[in-house]
Amino acid sequence: MADTSQAIGWLGVPLAIIAGTMRGGTPFLFVSLGECLTEKSGKINLGLEGTLLTGAMAAYAVSYLTNSPWLGVLAAGFAGAALGAIHGWLSQQPRVNDVAVGIAMIIFGSGVAFFFGKPFIQPKAPQLPTINLGEWSDFPALQAALQISPLFLIGLAIAPIMAWFFRSTRWGLFIRAVGDSPEAARAMGVSIFNVRMFSVIAGSFLAGIGGAALSLYYPGLWTERISSGQGLMAVALVIFARWNPIMCLWASLLFGGAQALGPALQSIGIKEGYYLFNAAPYVLTLLIMIFTCSPKRTLSGVPGALGTDS
Amino acid sequence: MSRKRILNVSRRQVIRGILATSAFGLTAKLGTACSPAGSGGTDAAAEGGASGGEPLTIGFIYVGPKDDYGYNQAHAEGAAGTASKFSWVKLVEEANVPETTAVAESMRSMIDIDGAKAIFPTSFGYFDPHILKLAEEYPDVQFFHAGGLYQEGKTPKNVGSYFGYIDEAQYIAGIVAALTSKSGKLGFVAAKPIPQVLRNVNSYTLGARSVRPDATTQVLFTGNWAEPIKEAEATNSMVDQGIDVVTCHVDSPKVVMETAEKRGIFCTGYHANQAALAPKGYLTGAEWDWTNIYSKIAEEIYAGKSLQAGTIDHILRGGLSDGFCKVSDYGPAVSAEAKAAADEAKAKLMDGSLVIYSGEVKDNKGGTVVSASEKLEQKDPKLEQMDYLVDGVLGSVGG
Predict the structure, then answer these.
(1) How large is the ipTM?
(2) Is there a contact between B35 and A110 if contact means CB atoms under 8 Å apart?
(3) Residues of A in contact with B180 (CB under 8 A)
(4) What is the pTM for the complete model shown?
(5) For A49-66, what is each residue's pLDDT tens digit?
(6) Chosen from A99, A127, A271, A275 to mutate, greatest number of chain B CBs within 10 A
(7) Among A120, A111, A127, which residue's Cα sits nearest to residue A51?
């Protein structure tokens, strides 16, 4: 069984980081792209942590019940969209604060996921197939690292498409207009309510698929602690990525890779400071925030109406 | 307009204030109890006035879900086993109870509403201060805590502590692992460097080195009891380093077992039997056997014995021979030679002729932790304060 396995020593660290970017970065990618879309329209959806959990649970449950992981992915998307619809409608009521609704949605989403997820903790659901890019190599370690999820590739494709969508399409313009200057959008004859509703629902759909990546790809199971705060981190990641889908992609890869750093360093015998390495993603965020901040202007790229009541 | 203003605060400000307060309250609750699915009290079967003695209500509290293939499942199986053994046991359970004042509330309602006479809060962190406080408040109720340290004279009389020396089972798993491994490199995914975890790592390694002196165990700490992604990363990194048998001490070993199976290496389980998760690579595992212990305690309480009167021991400890733990059935990959070596060690542990920590034992920094003349029996308090890793473990306890 272990005939071909060989120790690869310190090379394991870069390998783990590269593999981590693709394995661990996928949920970040989907959630941050979803949040990017939502925030471009001027609303914040903090509830994506709950959406992620609901998506993970729905994907796992449907995949187990129907034996089709792709149906699970679809179910995760729609479960996410359903939560998004609640958030989109509620947060647009007069004098309702979207941050507060988002926090309520985190709890509601995780509650729904835990409630319906109870019977699915034990069973083993069929997993998404992987695309093995490492076939040419003799190293089992490399082969394992290059088992790429099709979801990752889809996410990889969505990022530039979304960037193009915002920049060059009429619909993208509507969303940006609603997000930057709702009055102007209203003058254009665009329904603010509908545009925001669409953005929140579509964003939550993506976040739900992010959940499917957790439960059907990596680590590939359903437990109640599977998201461990990734949904919230992805919201921060959008700010860090300056509301730019392409930057979201890089930021997600960075966070995914940073997650793998702690275990990989320990396994090659760097024994001290594993708590510090485990905190790497957060330290990284702080550092980049500090280096890119400026006292002279507010954050560049922030949608004008974000966080206001308009 | 004065009607609309109360104390010079506009209605909008009042609503905002309420919103902010509730948002804060919800977030404060977030990390802990966002599960409406805690199955509190649902399992209480109505069993009024059975002929003979009165039914005995026993409460069980778990820190996680009851079917996590891990620590909580082991306890829940024990509770269910006890209830099905004796018709006079009325079970009250609550899962997903965090180690906060929430557990005090759970215990209180089990006592006040369900009438529980004995409570088993199974998570380590429930002990101090929650159990200690409740025990003083309800001197007639008996509290049995898994793992807590009972101190004569200091801890209330109605608190007892029970735990098993599952490291004996880990020792045997280590033997099987070392004799199955091709590279002689074993891996251990651990949560935190606390004595109970270190003891398992050390016993596993000592077991492995008793049959294969060149075997090593790479230990890797994830930092918390449930970190699915880190556990998967840890397992993957170990496989990349040529390790071909992994085991773990985390709340739910599911991730580690499934990742090991995916990567085509062997694994040995912990807490409960995980053979179903890794049909090819599962060698054996260290399992709890709480049904045995819980039924014993239940019978004693039913017979009128109590902690307060001193007729039930305050400290219940035991290993394989006392039925606190057991070794999983061997998987298909285990050779006859490994089975024989493991069975031999098991027999010796059962009859007490094998003491795991008998000198000389060195730590992995070269110092002697158990001198040549010393023999630390399982009940030795020195072992409960373990803060070292034995020779052959690659890793360090320092964070």
Answers:
(1) 0.85
(2) yes
(3) none
(4) 0.82
(5) 999 999 999 999 999 999
(6) A271
(7) A111
